Amino acid sequence: MRNAAAHVLAFAAVHERLYTGEDAIVVRLDTFLHDLCYEIGRASGCPDGINADVERVDVPTDMAVPLALIVNELVTNVVKHVGPPCNITLRSSTGPALKLTVSDIGQGPRPDRSRPGLGTRIVNAFCTQLGAHMETRQHASGYTIELSVPLPAAR
Fold first, then answer.
1. Element of type H or E holding 35
2. Which H or E run contains 90?
């Protein structure tokens, strides 16, 4: 229950920043996601273990909010299942699509899980809303989820 409260408080703090900023129509995604990761880390006891390496890109608020909810879910999930120290990297790159990568040192989802959990369903729903494509990879040093999200000019 404490993790859920931390999850909500972290997003609430960043959400407040979103709507008290200079421009409520466009969001500077690098600052927004960096702040989100900091708040998640602070709320869950690993503020120094979440590295948000996000390129500067401005996106419409209606795109920033679902992206933030996806990142919130993915990063919170790592904190919950891998635990401190949270060695999480959030990277982005831009082009015709925003590439957003969340990597960790964990083993990924259990292979014996018969159906996706609520978090996976939330992420999938927001990916659908954004027209995003999601790939997951298990590798020697951990687990990676990569999203490819069409930018507004390319939609």
1. helix 29-44
2. strand 88-93
The domains found in the chain, sorted by start residue, are: 2-154 (3.30.565.10)
Task: Note whether 59 and 152 are within 8 A (CB).
Answer: yes
pTM for the whole structure: 0.82
CB 100, CB 112: distance < 8 Å: no
Measure the CA–CA gap between 65 and 19, rounded to whole angstroms: 11
Contacts (Cβ under 8 Å, ≥6 apart) of 33: 52, 54, 67, 68, 71, 90, 92
Q: Are 101 and 144 in contact (CB under 8 A)?
A: yes
The CA distance from 53 to 37, in Å, is: 10
Rounded-to-integer distance, Cα 3 and Cα 80, Å: 7
R_g of the chain computed on alpha carbons: 15
How many Å apart are CA 83 and CA 45, to the nearest integer? 9
Residue 3 in this model has a pLDDT that exceeds 70 = no
